[in-house]
Design brief:
The chain is globular. With 487 residues, the protein is an alpha/beta fold. The structure holds nicotinamide-adenine-dinucleotide.
Length: 487
């Protein structure tokens, strides 16, 4: 299966053209060439999709959860069978290697299996009561129609994280595809149709955020919104849904610290730091973008780190380490931020430029970039770049490391490299984020591990794992009084 010429909406279990009859170009980030036309949806498409979700809700929410889980399991089996096909789509849309895309699809499949298994563990709680002859329990109920808004950087995993738990819990959903990765969600929808997901349970709308995302989240029939993307959009969504108190999960950005102590295994720390900083060209919310190194080992670590950075290969072959930036606009924004920091006297050790040799010129590729001598208060220290740019900070001791790690509005993930259990424990206790790692990378998660951040990184919900079920379902408290005298 090749990539289609058009990425359309998916409503009532079929591909449909947008009401506007307008399209925009999807550019391949690795070649700079148009690869498809994408439906430019608007509120009329949202209306159709939400109506379809409304019609399907009663039937789907009343379907036994084990039956819903069986449909998920059949879908996952098919996705696994056709993983090469999905990986090709992911690689083309996002400008990464097939190897990396296959890794991502593997994660999506595991996520699917996890939630399919949860169908048989969809349990509540039995509570005690101070009243005699009263049985009290908590049971889960579906919420209603949900809007799922997914990011572009890991499109297959991004869809899986939201779609599987949302459907398991008995909701019907309208997924707003990311404009940079429009076809992945349609591919999922086709698989779900093949395995018998009823019409209207899953719809997909394509288009731009303000034209189709905004009317979707503003729709009063949409009971919950699960969003992964930028802080700015997350804030707009919270405002747009505030008056009706919709349930909203925001998973936003990161500016994740990677602390290297003077007792760390420096060789290992440098190798892991390179992976964590440049994974997916730094387009990962959990990428390490602030490397905080003890003064005593700073020069030694820097040498090891830069040695490894110099060996990184950029491109979309399976021998390359990372691929393209998603768009020309994003690439220009990252380059501008780096130039700004250099004007403010940052030191550049490596990179800083677009790759313009024959193999890369047409696409949106950037050299791995390492900066030093940047103030923690500088704009580039505070802003999430979502690119292959990392800053090294030299600090005196553990206290300063913890202070600097916490000195960010984002608090998503963080790692510390040390041989000391005491330092590790103190860091776990005092670094105030959603995810803390010891002697590992800042990125990487598993389907049963709830992920998310605090501060500007998120509003407190966690996905995936069983904690995600608390977002995609509501707890209902039930009490039953009985009368023993009538037995
Ligand atoms: P973005 O906010 O620009 O776009 C995300 C989606 O929101 C797109 O589909 C867009 O069309 C839509 N959108 C835009 N305006 C909207 C509106 N007014 N109403 C509704 N929808 C609207 O985000 P992005 O830059 O494409 O994604 C990258 C960001 O995602 C980074 O900040 C990254 O850190 C974050 N991210 C976070 C996680 C996490 O789990 N915390 C994971 C991956 C990515």
């Amino acid at each position: 299966m090749g990539y289609p010429k058009r990425a359309l909406n998916w409503i009532d279990n079929k591909e449909v053209k947008p009401a506007s009859r307008k399209f925009f170009a999807k550019i391949n980030p690795a070649t700079g060439k148009e690869m498809a036309q994408v439906a430019r949806g608007d509120k009329r498409d949202v209306e159709k999709a939400v109506k379809s979700a409304e019609r399907a809700y009663e039937g789907w929410s009343q379907t036994l959860v084990i039956k819903r889980a069986e449909i998920l399991r059949e879908a996952v089996l098919k996705i696994r069978e056709r993983k090469e096909e999905l990986a090709e789509i992911v690689a083309l849309e996002s400008g990464k290697s097939k190897k990396d895309a296959l890794g991502e699809v593997g994660a999506a499949v595991e996520c699917g299996f996890f939630f399919a298994g949860e169908g048989r563990r969809y349990s509540g709680e039995v509570l005690t009561s101070a009243v005699s002859n009263r049985h009290v329990e908590l049971i889960r109920q579906s919420i209603g129609i949900g809007a799922l808004i997914t990011p572009f950087n890991n499109p297959a995993a991004g869809v899986a994280w939201k779609l599987f738990p949302a459907l398991l819990c008995g909701n019907t959903v309208v997924l707003k595809s990311h404009e940079y990765t429009p076809y992945v969600a349609i591919w999922y929808a086709k698989i779900f149709k093949e395995v018998g997901l009823p019409t209207g349970v899953l719809s997909v709308v394509q288009g731009l955020g303000r034209e189709v995302g905004a009317p979707l989240v503003e729709d009063p029939r949409v009971a919950f919104v699960s969003f992964t993307g930028s802080v700015k959009t997350g804030q707009l969504i919270i405002k747009a849904t505030a008056s009706r108190l919709a349930k909203v999960s925001i998973e936003a950005g990161g500016k994740n610290p990677f602390v290297v102590c003077d007792d760390a295994d420096l060789e290992k720390a440098a190798a892991i730091a390179v992976q964590a900083a440049f994974v997916d060209a730094g387009q990962r919310c959990a990428a390490a973008s602030r490397i905080i190194v003890f003064d005593k080992v700073y020069e030694k670590f820097k040498k090891l780190f830069l040695g490894k950075v110099a060996k990184l290969k950029v491109g979309t072959s399976d021998n390359d380490d990372f691929g393209a930036i998603i768009s020309e606009k994003r690439l220009q924004e990252i380059l501008k931020s780096v130039r700004g920091a250099l004007k403010r006297k940052a030191a550049l050790f490596s990179g800083g430029n677009r790759l313009i040799d024959d193999a890369h010129r047409a696409g949106y590729f950037m050299e791995p970039t390492v900066l030093e001598r940047v103030s923690p208060k500088d704009e580039i220290s505070c802003k999430e770049l979502f690119g292959p740019v990392v800053i090294l900070y030299r600090i005196k001791n553990f206290e300063e490391a913890v202070r600097l790690a916490n000195d960010s509005d984002f608090k998503l993930t963080g790692a510390i490299h040390t041989q000391s259990i005491h330092r590790a424990q103190e860091f776990i206790r005092r670094y105030n984020a959603g995810v803390v790692r010891v002697n590992g990378p800042t990125h990487g998660s598993e389907p049963h591990m709830p992920f998310g951040g605090v501060g500007l990184s998120g509003n407190g919900w966690r996905e995936p794992g069983t904690k995600a079920l608390d977002f995609y379902s509501e707890w209902k408290q039930v009490s039953i009084d009985h009368d023993p005298s009538t037995v």
